[in-house]
Each structure stands twice: as C-alpha cells, then as structure tokens.
Amino acid sequence: MLPLKEKDKPIVQKLLSAGCCARCILRFCCVRVQAAYRQPQQDTLKELQAFICDTENSKSQDSAASEATEENNKSHDAAVSEAPEEPPTKRVKLEPSGTDAQSEEDAAAAAAAAAVTLKEEESHVCVLCLGILHQFCGASQAVKIAETVKEEKYEFDTLVLSVSLPAQLCVREHSCWLHVKKEVREKGLVLDKDDVIQVKEAFKWIMQGLVAKELGRGVAVVTRSAFEVGVEFIHEATDSDCHFLASACPDCFKPTKNKQSVFTRMAVVKALEKISDARFLKHYPCPPAQPSSCCSLQDVQCVHVSVFVAGRYNKFCRSLPQTPWVIDGERRMESSVEELIAAPILSAFRADGFNFSSSGREDVDVRTLGNGRPFAMELLNPHKSRLSRAEMKQLQETINKSSDKIRVRDLQVVSREAMSRMKEGEEEKTKSYTALIWTQKPIEREEITFIDDIKELTLDQKTPLRVLHRRALAVRQRVIHSMNTRFLDPHHFYLGLKTQAGTYIKEFVHGDFGRTKPNLCELLKTDTDILELDVESVDVDWPPVIPE
Amino acid sequence: MDGIEQKETEENAPSVIDRYYTRWYRADMKGKPCEDHCILQHSNRICVVTLAETHPILQNGRTIKSINYQISNGCSRLNNKVSGKSKRGGQFLTDFAPLCRITCTDESEYTIYSCIRGRLLEVNENILERPALLLEKPFTEGYIAVILPKFEESKSITENLLSREEFESIISKRNVAESQPS
C-alpha cells in the first residue's frame, strides 16, 4: 500500500484530474519508497482513487492514511517489504462510509476519480512523463534494453542505467508544480520543488531490477559503474513546449556550433529558474495540455569508460612516422608507430578507437633505440576491459611479431591518473641521442675532442622553421648537459648528446639559418649537417618496468 | 672510407635547403635589372626570403654599409611581433611590400621585397650586427625575412615566381645578352 498522508490528498486530487499517471502523482507526493513505483500502475491508480474517495480524512490527519481494498493490500505487502529502509506505515483501517455522511468535497473527489478512470480507459498519455513511467516501464522494455546490451557483447559485472529525457519534460514538470503549489500553499503545507522525485529517478527504480534480471549471470545494476547503458527518449510532438522560453529568456538560448537545438535540458532548466510564475502561466497552460502520443525510445547506447594502456616503444625504421602522415588529404608513408602498436591492442580490448600520446616524439627518419620511449593509449569504449598479466604479455608478443619496424616493452594497463605522470616534468627530463655528423671542411681526429669537454651548454633556440607553422614563435633556452664524439673519417663523426627534453638536435647541428645559437657550425667553424639521428634513451621512470 | 667514397657522400648528400625547401625566384624585381630575389619554401609552407646569387649586392666585391628595416616613417619591420600558434599581429605583406633597404659602401642602394603575399613572422636581426653574413652566407644565415603565406594561398603564391630551371635559363640568356656587344 502507498505511504500517503492526509496532506497528500489535495495534490492527488488535482493531479489525477490534470491527467497525470499514478507514478507521476507519487513523485509529486514525494514518495521515496521505491517499491511503490514498482507495483503495477493499475493497482496504484486504484489505490489513489480509493484514497481520495475516503471520507474519514479528518480522523487521520497525522497518520499514514492510504486506503485500499483488502485484496490490493495483500498484493502490495510484498512490494513494500522490498524496501526495508522505510518504516512500516501505520495503517488505519477505515469503515466504508455511508452515503448520508458523504460531504460535498468527497462527491467532487469521486467525480474527479471517475473522470480519471474514464481517461485511463482511453489509455491516455500522462501529461507529465509523456508515457515514460507508464508505457516504457515494464518487463518488455527491460527485455529490449537487455537485448541491445547483449548484442554488443560487453564483458562487465555491473552497469549503470542512465536516462536522457526530452527537455520539454522540465516545462511540463514546472507547469504541474505551479498547478499543485497553489493548492499546497492554501493548505499551508511545506513542499518544495526539489522534493519532487525526478522522472529519471523513478524510471531507474522501476527498471534497474528488471534489466538486471533480464541480463542474468550475476550482473548488478548499480548507481556507479564503468559501464553505462543510456536510454534516450524523444517526443517531437511536444518539442514546441519549450519555444516560448526563447522569447522570455533569450540569453539562456544562445546558439552554439555543436548543438543541433538551442533547447538543451540545461538551458531550459536555467530559463525556468529565471522566469516569473506569472509570465510562465501567461504563456503556458497549467496544468499542461494533454499529449496525443507518448514518447518514443530513440536509442539504447552502451559505453564503457576508457581503459588506459602504457608501455615503451622502440622504432627501428627511418621511414616510419609516429602518427599517420597526411598532406593535403593524401597519405604519406603506409604505416605509423601508433597504428602498428594500436591495431593489436584495439582488437584485444575490442575498443572503438584510441588516443595515442607519448613522452615527446621523434621525426620520421629518426630511430628510437635503448629502452624505448614511454607511451600511453586511451582505449575508447572497450568491450573487454580486463586483461590478465599473461594476456598482456601475450598481447605484447603479438605486437612485436607483427612488425620488425617497432618493438614494445613494459605493456600494462594503467589508471587515467597515472597517465599524467608521463607528461609531468616534461621539461626537466633528459634525453640521449647519437647523431651522424657531416662537416664541410675536413677534420682531424683531435680537432673535435674539445667537444667532449663542453658541459651544460645553454642554447637559445628560436622555434625551428621546420615546426614554426604549428608552434608559437619564441626563443627557448635549452641545455645540452654533455656531448661526446667518435671520429669516423675527415668529414664524418658520431656525436653523442645528453640534453634537456625539448632540445631540437637537428637545428643545433645545422643552425637553422643561424636561429639556434650556439650551434655546431659555430663550434667547429665549418658548415655541419646531420645525416642520421637516433634517440638512445628517454629518461622517464614511467611506466614501471615489467620484468621479462 | 677512402677518398673517393667521401667525395661521393659529399656530392650526394643534399644540403638542409635541398632536403626540405623548394627554391623559387623573382628576376629583375620591379623592373630593376638583375635585382633577383630567392624564396625558399619549406614543405610546411613557411617561406624564407633571401637574395639570389645574381643580386648586384653580391657582385663586384661590394660591401655593405647599412641595412635598414625602417621602410617608411611610420613602419619598421623591426616592430613586427607575432604571438601564439596562429601568429597573430604580424604585418601582412603583398608581393611588392619592401622588407628593407640595403646601402653598399659604394653608395648604391637596393630595396629587398617580400615577393609573396603572407604574414611577416620575423626579420633577420643578426645581419644588422654582422652585415657581412649577407655576403658570406646569403642563403642561410644571411636570410632577410620569414613569411607565412595564408594556408589557402600556399600553393598559388609561387605561381608568379620562377622555378629554379626557369630562373637559370633567364640568367644564361642574360649572360649571353651581356656578352654580346650592343
């Protein structure tokens, strides 16, 4: 039975005649007993009708005074016991009232109830929820939602149900609130708009258990989960309900690039907070007009929160870009580091897409040797989110077997927060390189040894012309901590460098039109050029090393 | 490596300019004989304006007396400032916008022009301190300015310019004409 009090009676009466469904009436009576929403709508309606027909209202002012027939009481006992957090309502058994004692007020209430019954028989659509808590709440809808989830073959233990409602529901809700607020104020009751149970909330109370039951295999529908099933309702016939708000509060509805309509839920809620009651009532019927059709279920969308995978990669090829290289819409180079790494990972996690990031990047013609460069990937909407250590090792081997151009190590699942470790201290970390240098003038073996003694050399690097199209123009100070040389022949030597991250090595060697100073040309007093470059190490201690 | 191999690597190894830039030319700029300009366009559309090797400044052992980026009373290229990735605030140049005036010690004066439409990113201030750079390394450290063409014009701006082959053929014709008695 319903936990309604005497003071709810006028609200029930008004809303019933306004054409609200039984569950929406419970919402406006601020009933927080979930079981009350789960019971069949027909039963609730009967109880409500019986409740307002009750003549003994004066005798039960402060007690729970829900009235129902004997058989209804039986069928509801189970439902109420599902919500043990709610104390058992004190039931007041009332004798059926005699016709002689019937007041005028009761006659009016009975008439209202009869009218509602009539409307109900015509299977009318609730003016408030547009059928969401009626036609769309039930076992058949739960089956539909569960089927969509099953089709996508996600692996999950829990899911959270989310509901997207048409924005005009807020307008209708507001209109109804003004409708009963009037009545409520006369009675001197304290009832605030925030205490009204939201449609979303009631929908979830009803549907969560049903969906979980349909999915079976121990799946729990909870309030927080990495896996979200979104149910979206639309109702085009009443979209125009919101339109009057645009002229009333034009500043709430500014067009934006990405939105299809300015009448977003947020904007409508904001406008409703601003508009005066009088102005609202002037432009919108109170209670809201009867809709001719109910909402439609637009979409059931499943999305799993991103999984993050990190590791280190080597690049052994001088014709492999880090990311797909596209010029004027045309693809250059057939592959890329990120694609070679991502393809096996995407299929292992059955993800829809990915975002690749790394601790810096190397040019297409640069190799990355040593322990490799730390990288991390965000996997979007993974259908499988958990891989064991052994499976991760297997995945790493799959990547490494797929190409000899790259190699991956320390592959592991990490948290979103841990990923920021990679970008932290980007400026402070050091990197080691080996460069093959050409000199215009012939050099003697001992002519270059002075370079080995240069320590902590500070460079002023203007943004290289090579990257100036996408980076701001600035002079950046970067430090070369140390260098060493290995003489090859009179025009070539290997230069080892240990530098602050962000130092442009190629520009240090050729000088970039004199825009990096000092540069190797100045140091050696001849034109120098860089023929090959290898990254020997990227000194970042993240992600943690995984022993082989 | 023996001597022969070395020589080969030197000749085969393209310079930084060869590897990343395309050379474009403007001959007899504004109808002034031999005042040839060179535009180095990077594959990322950025352009570097330099003197062409045939420019009078680089002939006859001339030396430079002064370089002036103040192209009018109200406008100095030295005041050019760009900010952010989008290079806001740079002076916008058209083909015939002067970049600087160079006076040689023989009192001959030359104006260097933009040659292309685009936003001025920077002028080379190093040549103010060391004008000799312009003579010693006219195509690298002795550059005049860096210009960023509009994205949509990055292909069309070079339509008015000469390719290296076209420029070389003009130069050879010019040399023939000079050598013939008039």
Automatic annotation (TrEMBL), chain A:
Q: What EC number(s) would the UniProt record show?
A: 5.4.99.25
Mention one GO molecular function: RNA binding
* Chain positions covered by the region annotation Disordered: 61-106
Q: Which family does this protein fall into?
A: Belongs to the pseudouridine synthase Pus10 family.
Assigned GO CC terms: mitochondrion; nucleus
- Where in the cell is the protein located? Cytoplasm; Mitochondrion; Nucleus
Instruction: Report domain Pus10-like C-terminal positions.
Output: 308-539
Q: What is this protein called?
A: tRNA pseudouridine synthase Pus10
Name the keywords, alphabetized. Coiled coil, Cytoplasm, Isomerase, Metal-binding, Mitochondrion, Nucleus, tRNA processing, Zinc
- Per the UniProt record, the source organism is Seriola dumerili
So what does this thing catalyse? uridine(55) in tRNA = pseudouridine(55) in tRNA; uridine(54) in tRNA = pseudouridine(54) in tRNA
Q: Which EC class heads this enzyme's classification? A: isomerase
Q: What is its main location?
A: cytoplasm
Q: Where is the signal peptide?
A: none
Q: Name one Pfam family in it.
A: Pus10_N_euk
TrEMBL record, chain B:
- Localization terms from the record: Cell projection, Dendrite; Cell projection, Growth cone; Cell projection, Lamellipodium; Nucleus speckle
Q: Which GO terms describe its cellular component?
A: dendrite; filopodium tip; growth cone; lamellipodium; nuclear speck
Give the SUPFAM superfamilies listed for this entry: Single hybrid motif
Q: Which GO terms describe its biological process?
A: dendrite morphogenesis; regulation of actin filament polymerization; regulation of filopodium assembly
Give the keywords, sorted: Cell projection, Nucleus
A GO term, aspect molecular function: actin monomer binding
Do the record's keywords include Nucleus? yes
Pfam families found in the cross-reference section: GCV_H
* PANTHER family, A to Z: PROTEIN ABITRAM
Q: Which family does it belong to?
A: Belongs to the ABITRAM family.
- Mind telling me what this protein is named? Protein Abitram
The record lists the organism as Seriola dumerili
Starting at the broadest rank, the lineage of the source organism is: Eukaryota, Metazoa, Chordata, Craniata, Vertebrata
